[in-house]
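Hi everyone,

Forwarding the result from last night's run.
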Amino acid sequence: MTAKTEWPSSLDDNELDELDRYLRAHTGEGDLLLDGVHGLLSALAVGPLLVLPDEWLPEVLHEPFADEDEGNRVLALLAKLNDSISAELDVDAYEPILGEVELETGPMLSAAGWCEGFSRGIDLRASLWENRLSEDPSLMELLGPVMALAVDEGILSADTEFEKLSDDEYDECLSQVPAVLAAVNQYWQAKPATEAEVETRFGNTRKALQLIHHGEDIFATEEPRPSPAWLDWFSPVRLAGFKGNTLLTAKQHGPARDTLQKVLETLPEESAKQRSVFLGDLAAVAVAENNPDEACALAEEALDHLARYWYATGMERIRAVRESLTKWESLPSVRRLDERLYDWNTTVSALTG
């Protein structure tokens, strides 16, 4: 196999050092260094939708260039780094760029910066990732080793305390990163973001709802008729759940409530994990309708369900509801929800039960 440093799209060691020096000299606290930039671009390379440079460059560059030559050089290096990721994934030669931390025993490689960048890359298409993660547990399973590293490094928070990974476990997760990225890339190619998901992501809920209605019409008839490719991802109940969330986003709270209640009534047993997500969306509708007591009751019902069918996305929905209840936090129902949320026994039993 040709050495990766000989490929036209890959940076050689000198170019990597040059880009690393520039980033270190022009970043502040919390900004991404080379390992973080590589993680960011890796998430974008395997993600659901193209992210153009004018979106991700502000995550990387924070100061004006000294002159045109410097700007052209830095941008060329970043473009080359970006191109190298897909090229390396195509030939099974991808390796994450890692940072170093100083320990008493000496320097040690760390995935913290790479994981931080990967997380920010997901954030640039957050709604698409979150919607799919809430609907398809297999995507979360694919991301498992990366999530384990991110939790271990404190980049992502967990709903309970986990023991730190052992050195062997850490190294094993690191070794799986290339395979994880390849699998996630294949996942989005096989199950691309639907047209309706994309329209919702960019705020065009009217167009998204038109597409959803078209899908509903197709499901409602048994007669053979052309079906859009994006509909292959949905079942009737899953489409209805997405419709409820889209209606909530569009601030059509009455229709959202009706749709989500019907989804909960017809949700099949094999989709039990999604119940907490739909309950969370219904609780969000109650908040929007200034009904905090109902919102808390629905959130508590979701917590009861999470104790039987743990689902991280469901817990995220409940926490988002709680954040929206700030102006009612003196109410007994909100205090009771707080007790449930901060009761470690709830999350521990959910994860181990």
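The chain is about 65% helix and 5% strand.

Cheers,
N.
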